[in-house]
Design a protein that fits this description.
By secondary structure, the chain is an alpha+beta fold. The longest helix is centred in the last third of the chain and has 48 residues, at 417-464. The chain has helices spanning 2-7, 14-27, 32-39, 53-73, 94-104, 124-137, 151-162, 220-235, 259-262, 280-290, 292-295, 319-325, 343-347, 350-381, 394-400, 417-464; strands at residues 29-31, 77-82, 88-92, 173-179, 193-201, 206-214, 237-239, 245-247, 268-272, 298-300, 305-307, 314-318, 332-334, 340-341. The chain has 16 helices and 14 strands. Among the domains are: 1-117, Orthogonal Bundle (Arc Repressor Mutant, subunit A); 164-348, no CATH class. Strands 4-5-6-9-12-13-14 form a seven-stranded mixed sheet, sandwiched between helices.
Length: 465
């Protein structure tokens, strides 16, 4: 015990240190509060009797702060400065990132890079990225771990459990992911894009989603320029391990093998956080106008939907709205549309899906009608028994429909199976009766022949006498 305490002076368990490694392996830089909310959401509903919010926060984050301190002593993590609100942030060392890759079951090149100036200037951008990830996942507490807390805390935890689910889990996310327009995944060329977040949660309807976060401090023209890089990356093709050339992104991420993910590029979500002086609403409108050539679809008048072949679906929202409503709330604006929608509708094409569904239903109904017509025509050709008038069964029809020279033929093809059985039985009985009659005739003739000499001898003896 003493040895363990010396190695882990903060007294953290392997599970707590694993939580910190996993969260930092994904987010790269995070506060103890963010680590706790992702890894142990039930702690957010404990310590509610503490006098102030600050003391409650200190109590619920104590375990993960201790685990981060132990990781620092082992050379796996370092202090990353402080946020503008004064919270300490933690980042992993190179060795820590390698350890996190093992915990996350990822290859080193899948871990992504470290955010620039992560621990300086208040880490405002990484904090926005982290809050975006938390708002999308919406971690749910384990109610068993909240049992015994005040009724208000239990009710709040229950409300969180009952709320709509988020998208994916921590392992569904990756940050600071290079998208090489040239070069390799490991060594992208200058001018490549770098996604703030990449989400892969096919079980929740999001096979692949790229996310860009902005604190309303960057000029709209610079944000729009990122989509030129995205377009170049999406258009880049490489040969996969099977020797088939395909979009480069498909060699790393999977997505449904249908035209929606072959002809339309993966979607990109813009999350604006009203920190800077620029208006989030005006930023959205400006970026939408500057990127029109990337997202604008073509109206299909016949089928009543927009076709987005070769386009990038771009969706925008604000962090405040995302935190309040989650991904299932109608707070996402797909560039080119008028209404706000839930995320899955915004990154998808509901009108196209409905048109395709109608087309599939019409094809199904037409196939059913054709099958019914064919069945009716076949019924009209079905033979009927010449004796009882019953329709032939399929098996009987097949049996009498002999076309090969090597196949045996039925004795009564014009009769149903039952009538054929009776006819065969009657024929056999008639044949048996005929054989019996012939046998009787033969025996009678034989008896007559045997009796004839005796009759003749008796007559001659009487004549001689």
């Amino acid at each position: 015990m003493a040895g363990r305490r010396k190695a882990n002076e903060a007294g953290s368990s392997n599970g707590l240190r694993g939580d910190v490694l996993s969260v930092l392996g994904v987010l790269k830089v995070a506060t103890a509060d963010q680590i706790q909310r992702l890894a142990s959401p039930h702690l957010s509903y404990r310590h509610t009797l503490k006098e102030t919010p600050a003391k409650r926060k200190e109590a619920r984050t104590a375990s993960h702060r201790g685990a981060a301190n132990d990781l620092r002593r082992h050379g796996l993590a370092v202090d990353g400065g402080r946020t503008r609100g004064g919270e300490e942030v933690r980042i992993l060392t190179k060795e820590g990132l390698a350890a996190a890759a093992i915990d996350l079951d990822r290859e080193p090149e899948e871990m992504g890079g470290m955010p620039k100036s992560a621990g300086r200037s208040g880490a405002s951008h990484p904090m926005t990225v982290n809050e975006t990830v938390i708002a999308l996942i919406r971690p749910k507490p384990d109610l068993d771990l909240v049992a015994g807390e005040p009724a208000e805390a239990v009710a709040a935890a229950q409300a969180a459990v009952d709320a709509p689910d988020g998208i994916g889990t921590l392992t569904s996310y990756a940050t600071e992911v290079a998208l090489p327009v040239k070069g390799t995944w490991k060594n992208p060329a200058i001018g490549s894009a770098r996604a703030d977040v990449v989400v892969t949660a096919p079980g929740d309807g999001v096979p692949l989603l790229f996310i860009e976060a902005d604190n309303c401090t960057e000029e709209a023209v610079l944000i729009a320029a990122k989509f030129d890089k995205y377009a170049r990356f999406f258009q880049r093709k490489e040969k996969d391990t099977d020797g088939v050339e395909k979009p480069m992104w498909r060699t790393r991420w999977s997505a449904p093998a249908w035209q929606g993910y072959e002809r339309v590029h993966p979607p990109v979500l813009l999350v604006f956080h009203q920190v800077g002086k620029r208006s989030a609403k005006k930023q959205m409108e400006a970026v939408a106008d500057l990127t029109r050539h990337h997202w604008k679809g073509r109206w299909d008048r016949e089928d009543g939907y927009h076709s987005y072949d070769g386009c990038i679906p771009i969706v925008a929202t604000t962090l405040d709205r995302l935190i309040e409503h989650g991904p299932s709330g109608p707070v996402f604006w797909r560039f080119g549309r008028k209404e706000f929608q839930p995320l899955l509708d915004a990154i998808g094409n509901p009108r196209r899906d409905a048109a395709l569904a109608r087309s599939r239903e019409a094809a199904r109904e037409e196939r059913q009608r054709r099958e019914e017509r064919e069945a009716a025509a076949r019924e009209a050709r079905r033979p009927v028994c010449a004796d009882c008038g019953a329709k032939f069964t399929d098996a009987r029809w097949k049996a009498v429909d002999v076309r090969g020279w090597d196949q045996s033929r039925e004795s009564h093809p014009q009769l149903c199976e039952d009538c054929q059985d009776r006819a065969v039985a009657a024929r056999k009985q008639a044949e048996a009766d005929e054989r019996e009659r012939q046998e009787q005739e033969r025996l009678s003739e034989q008896a007559q022949e045997e009796a004839a000499p005796q009759k003749a001898g008796g007559w001659r003896s009487r004549f001689r006498a």
